[in-house]
């Protein structure tokens, strides 16, 4: 019977068990309860005696006895009833108290529901499972227990190493047991007599238990989830294997008989032998990483216990822990790269803004027909290409300004399909597969088109390099469970929209798979790629609250190729009442816009090039512009001018006082003056800093004079 089924049959102790009553009375809360009941009884009796008046004494005593009995009955009900009402908690306490090892019943979120004395001795009185370095391995064991009924891990906490076993009790509760790994110091090794390994023993204050594979092991060692081996000899690496348990033989991919009588050093790789010898010489203790000669790819940790005549060696499979550490390191690495890319893009945006504004100024002074006009147009085109690179960096860093609209994924891909077919080569065929009842999503259309295009172009190049083939685009709607099965573990309840781009090319090798989303990483020849395509896709999908996965089969394996899956949350439709029909707007005759105006503007920007050129161009259009290099200088100017400005234009990220913080301090002085923030970052990056400020607008960098002049005139007119 499993632990889960056993727990279902646990029952509470009898309500009037003497030991239960004694334990209950030792509880401080229970003593307070009894005292409170006594006070209530005495007070009620006294009150009844006072108001009884001339009633006969017998009637008064009878009423008092009835009141006392009622109050005592309610107290006993409260005293013992909660045990029955909380049967689960009592069952949990009985379960852990019945175990000899340290044990605890915990919820899947880490809360401790019941713990025995052994667990409190190593885990303290904390009401949560161990945190810190031990938490990842504990989480893996509990996750396995929930999925498969049983999970195991070896972790260090409370100053020692423990083998932890997690067993599922209910859908949200597990039983966690911890057994110390370290061998007691009283163990004494007895040399085998006349080479007969059947009499080998490793005594621990008791007669030797039953033997296994030629060595003496206790029942715990035989059933332990970690490897355990008994060695005979003075030197660890040349010591002879006397006996091993099943887990040790499984890690070495050999039978127990094959391992017996072998030198322990032969079981390790050359590098691990050198590492082990170094640690023995230096006297270092504790677990350390090694590699086994028969299974070199498996991450293993070893712990050594030594006495005067032999060694006991423990091996721990830490593959799941290493995978979790690698996943965490990869996430942190991508976050660090994203922050770096965002910072670089911010600085480039400032330079591009200055470049664009200066070119606009020169084109105004050198119109069509001027000898310098063509050269200036070429410089503008180069700036546009640089702007596109910056846009990709911001998309990867998830700091790009997005304009989300409701899109149907089928219509999104079908409308874009014509353009994608033009990108194909003669030996590459594009196929599409549109599912039925495709859902709507809420995303930036241009960004999603960019993401799909990058995936298709990468697939096209991979197929073309291998001699031709097919690129396939598939769209579908998935339920939450279907999306989770395909790789999106955190899929929303409403389901997910799927855009899948696959090919029958050579596939992506495993060593490259972990790097494909890193910016500037590319396998294409020099000059044929920037390495920002997949990095951009990664940022776009994450900024759209979605998820992206890769699966790959490397040629010449059957069905080789790569599959990229983009998952996006299905938009939850909200019923909107039908609006009255609106007459079509009258199209006005297009006339050239007048960019000139009048007004007093304070322009706050830490980049001198951007501030100087923008202020000069605005002055040329009739505005009075004062300049400030940072937030502190802006406040000084506002105080000196008594806040008499018609518009405040400010960068967001500046040394010292940033734009939103400067505005909070300036608002009492400038009143309800409109404020325009300019930044290379997305508006969402700083909107939470504004605390519902009114009369705010946003203009993304890089700027051009036409857009800047139009927005300034709109703000002043409003």
Automatic annotation (TrEMBL):
Entry protein name: histidine kinase
Record EC number: 2.7.13.3
UniProt cross-references to InterPro entries, sorted A to Z: CheY-like_superfamily (IPR011006), HATPase_C_sf (IPR036890), HATPase_dom (IPR003594), His_kinase_dom (IPR005467), HisK_dim/P_dom (IPR003661), HisK_dim/P_sf (IPR036097), PAS-like_dom_sf (IPR035965), Sig_transdc_His_kin-like_C (IPR004358)
Highest taxon of the lineage: Bacteria
PROSITE patterns: HIS_KIN, RESPONSE_REGULATORY
Keyword field: Membrane, Phosphoprotein, Transmembrane, Transmembrane helix
Enzyme class name: transferase
Catalytic activity entry: ATP + protein L-histidine = ADP + protein N-phospho-L-histidine
KW Membrane (keyword) present: yes
Coiled coil: none
Annotated ranges, domain Response regulatory: 600-716
């Amino acid at each position: 019977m499993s632990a889960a089924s056993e727990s279902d049959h646990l029952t509470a102790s009898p309500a009037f068990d003497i030991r239960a009553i004694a334990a209950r009375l030792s509880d401080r809360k229970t003593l307070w309860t009894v005292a409170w009941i006594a006070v209530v009884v005495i007070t009620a009796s006294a009150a009844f005696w006072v108001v009884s008046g001339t009633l006969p004494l017998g009637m008064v005593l009878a009423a008092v006895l009835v009141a006392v009995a009622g109050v005592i009955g309610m107290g006993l009900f409260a005293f013992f009833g909660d045990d029955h009402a909380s049967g689960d908690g009592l069952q949990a306490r009985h379960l852990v108290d019945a175990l000899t090892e340290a044990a605890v019943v915990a919820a899947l979120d880490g809360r401790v529901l019941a713990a025995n004395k052994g667990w409190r001795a190593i885990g303290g009185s904390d009401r949560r499972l161990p945190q810190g370095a031990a938490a990842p391995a504990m989480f893996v064991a509990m996750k396995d227990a929930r999925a498969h009924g049983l999970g195991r891990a070896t972790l260090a906490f409370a100053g020692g190493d423990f083998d932890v076993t997690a067993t599922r009790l209910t859908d949200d509760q597990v039983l966690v047991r911890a057994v110390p790994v370290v061998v007691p110091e009283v163990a004494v090794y007895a040399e085998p007599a006349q080479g007969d390994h059947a009499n080998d023993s490793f005594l621990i204050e008791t007669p030797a238990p039953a033997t296994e594979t030629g060595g003496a092991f206790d029942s715990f060692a035989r059933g332990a989830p970690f490897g355990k081996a008994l060695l005979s000899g003075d030197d660890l690496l040349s010591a002879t294997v006397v006996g091993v348990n099943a887990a040790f033989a499984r890690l070495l991919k050999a039978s127990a008989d094959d391992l017996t009588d072998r030198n322990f050093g032969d079981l390790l790789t050359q590098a691990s032998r050198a590492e082990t010898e170094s640690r023995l010489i230096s006297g270092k203790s504790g677990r350390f990483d090694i590699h086994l000669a028969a299974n070199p790819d498996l991450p293993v940790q070893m712990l050594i216990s030594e006495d005067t005549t032999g060694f006991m060696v423990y091996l721990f499979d830490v593959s799941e822990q290493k995978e979790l550490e690698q996943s965490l390191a990869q996430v942190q690495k991508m976050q660090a790269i994203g922050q770096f890319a965002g910072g670089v893009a911010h600085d480039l945006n400032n330079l591009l803004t200055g470049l664009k504004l200066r070119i606009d100024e020169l084109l105004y002074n050198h119109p069509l027909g001027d000898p310098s006009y063509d050269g200036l147009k070429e410089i503008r085109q180069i700036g546009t290409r640089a702007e596109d690179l910056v846009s990709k960096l911001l998309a990867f860093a998830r700091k790009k300004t997005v304009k989300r609209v409701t899109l149907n994924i089928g219509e999104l891909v079908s409308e874009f399909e014509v353009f994608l077919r033009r990108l194909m080569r003669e030996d590459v065929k594009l196929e599409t597969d549109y599912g039925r009842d495709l859902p709507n999503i809420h995303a930036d259309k241009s960004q999603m088109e960019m993401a799909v295009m990058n995936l298709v172009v990468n697939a096209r190049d991979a197929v073309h390099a291998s001699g031709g083939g097919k690129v396939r685009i598939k769209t579908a709607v998935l339920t939450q469970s279907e999306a989770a099965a395909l790789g999106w573990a955190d899929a929303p309840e409403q389901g997910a929209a799927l855009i899948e781009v696959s090919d029958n090319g050579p596939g992506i090798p495993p060593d490259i798979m972990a790097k494909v989303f890193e910016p500037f990483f590319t396998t294409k020849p020099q000059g044929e790629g920037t390495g920002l395509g997949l990095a951009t896709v990664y940022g776009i999908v994450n900024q759209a609250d979605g998820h992206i996965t890769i699966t790959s089969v490397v040629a010449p394996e059957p069905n080789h190729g790569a599959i990229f899956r983009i998952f996006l949350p299905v938009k939850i439709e909200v019923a909107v009442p039908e609006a009255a029909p609106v007459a079509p707007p009258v199209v006005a005759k297009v006339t050239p816009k007048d960019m000139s105006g009048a007004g007093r503007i304070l322009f706050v920007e830490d980049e001198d090039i951007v501030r100087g050129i923008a202020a000069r161009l605005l002055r040329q259009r009739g505005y009075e512009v004062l300049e400030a290099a940072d937030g502190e200088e802006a406040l000084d100017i506002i105080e000196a001018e008594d806040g008499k400005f018609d518009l405040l234009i400010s960068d967001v990220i500046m040394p010292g006082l940033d734009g939103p913080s400067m505005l909070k301090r300036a608002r009492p002085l400038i009143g309800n003056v409109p404020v325009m923030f300019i930044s290379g970052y997305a508006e969402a990056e700083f909107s939470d800093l504004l605390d519902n400020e009114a009369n705010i607008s946003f203009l993304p960098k890089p700027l051009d004079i036409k857009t800047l002049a139009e927005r300034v005139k709109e703000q002043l007119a409003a």
